[in-house]
Amino acid sequence: MSRRAVFSAVSLLALASALSAQAEDVLWAVQDTEVSKVVVTAAPYAVSADNLTASVAIVDRTDLDLAPPTGLGDLLSGMPGVRSTAFGAGASRPVVRGLAGPRVQVLTNGVGQIDASALSPDHQVATDPGEAERIEVLRGPAALAYGGSAIGGVINIIDDRIASRAPEGGYSGRLLASGATGDDSYAISGAIHAAVGPLVLTLDGLKREADDYEIPVFAESRRLLASEGETAEGGGGKLANTAVELEAIGAGVSYVGADGFIGVSVKKTDTSYGVPGHAHEEEGAEEDGPVTIGLTQTRIDLRGEYNKAIGPFAKLRLSAGHADYEHTEFEGSEVGTKFMSDGFEGRLELVQAERGGWKGAVGVQGLRRNFDAQGDEAYVPKTKITEYGAFTQQRVEKAGWGYEGGLRIDYRNLNSLKGEADFTNVSGSLGVFARPSDAVFFGVALSRNSRAPTEAELFAEGPHVATRGFEIGDPTLDEETAWSVEATAHYSGPRLSADLHLFTARYDGFIDLRATGAEEGGLAVYEYIQTKADFRGFEVETSYKAWRKADQSLTLEASGDSVRGATDLGPPARIPSYSITGRAIYDARFWTARLEARRVGEQDRVAQGELPTDGYTVLNASFAWKPRGDGQLRVFLDGRNLTDEEVREHASFLKDIAPSAGRSIRAGVAYRF
């Protein structure tokens, strides 16, 4: 099925459902009211999800409790517009609308990770999703307030380690424990908040362990085997070197008063995980032993908010973080390469007092980070990164319509042993929207975003086995600029809600990693170059309340996405195919059941040197028992890939030698108090 046919079918289904629902609304009695979720990452001032021209998704703690304990990319993969780099079980980063790495900004409470996860797909994000109280995903360049690294999207992991308010009754907390087949894994996590006068003390921690996971087929894909003149029968078993161990513990204290709060927290992360597939590429790797990675980070955060008028401003908000990160790659028991990153990032926002529907904010942000690599794969030299930025976002809401805009200016300096580079980037956006009724919202936004090259894109020179190549940077690269247009439609009726986003983006100076045809040390040579590129696509989500009686209901959900990329040199690498997901949710007072089917299409429009990737269909199901009827205590059973399908993510560098996990059954208990 072509992408155009998929898009047409999904769009017509959404339109037909909306027209049908409008006719039925007068017959449907609204038995409860759902408060629209406010998206804190979209703007410094409050905007609800159904009033945004941006494409947004929210994962709250209720969803996180039932989600498999895994890396950030794997957790979010499956929501429209988002896939995973799927670099084994230990390292996965989000791919948003076909873009990954430095084009997708991963934040913790609004400031950067200060790690090395954007440098390479085998580097894990230093914050685990299990620490989060909420994760917000902004797809596309709408969140320009976070700088050029948000040119493709923003993932904000929001924890509650620094409490902004005192818990009701003086204390609150959560506990979660689960175990799963397929990788013989277990996970335990918890957090507690306790008020002592105006102080709120917080302690949280998590631990998870998993063995090598099971796969239903040979590790090598049939396409790879065929290209090597080989065939295979049967297959399956464990995928070697995919085990994971992770521990994180944090503590915080905050002062909460009538005019706001201020607090500090500290967190220590310690994890080790295997990197599958290296031995397939390098002779002698089996003699050296499997490649594993040990990651540690100590992070200190400061956050506060002052809610009294300061001239024209109604609120002041501060976020800052300092981190010391070390990532060690082991070849067997020997140390191969170390990657180190330490630095500080701070952000200050002044939120204007709302006047006549006019909301706005101004802010500044600064970053100092030191990066260093030592060892056989130290392909990026020691670099000091300095960045300063200033931004403003403004929004005016009139009766039934409105407009919004934003502007950000960044200065970025990269000073390395191979040279120095300076960039001044200007990003801006302008949007208009209309709300002809309470249920309907239309919007369109034009944005220009500019991104400075990274230390790898500028200064790399050496073997990078994770990408199976010898990478060479270009210190003369210019900034990458994208002009994009996004059209949005929301519908929120008593029975039906629908969300549609159409987008197109044109890149000038798109930074791409391309094969030269040469070899160095047995590895293909790749160079960072600049070209023009175009990306376009859509995301659609619908939810329909098919039936309701007393405290029971049946909800049907459907979603789909597609992205298509093109450059002057042909298709860019690792662009995922379309996806379609259908879901049925039966909810009652004491239990909830979910059944989900997801189809990802074949990708045969590939870059030079890439192999096509087969499509797949997975079936997931879950059951949660709420013995108290209030959701505070849940006992759950969750099944993933129940048909034991071969799953290979086209966005992954390892897709042809390391498929995703096969069938897995997970059981657990979640408790909130």
Primary descriptors:
33 strands, single chain, 5-stranded mixed sheet, 7 helices, 673 residues, 22-stranded antiparallel β-barrel, mainly beta
Characterise the protein shown here.
- The chain has 673 residues and is mainly beta.
- The protein has helices at residues 3-24, 61-66, 72-76, 222-227, 278-281, 285-288, 455-459; strands at residues 55-60, 82-84, 94-96, 104-108, 111-112, 134-139, 153-158, 171-180, 185-196, 199-210, 214-215, 237-238, 244-257, 260-274, 291-306, 313-331, 334-352, 358-375, 383-397, 401-416, 419-437, 440-451, 461-464, 469-472, 480-492, 496-520, 523-549, 552-567, 579-587, 591-600, 616-625, 633-640, 664-672.
- The strands form 4 sheets. It has a 22-stranded antiparallel beta barrel. Strands 1-6-7-4-5 form a 5-stranded mixed sheet. The protein has a two-stranded antiparallel sheet with strand order 2-3.
- A hairpin with a 6-residue loop joins strand 15 (291-306) and strand 16.
- The longest helix has 22 residues, at 3-24.
- Mean pLDDT is 91; it is low at 1-35 and 280-287.
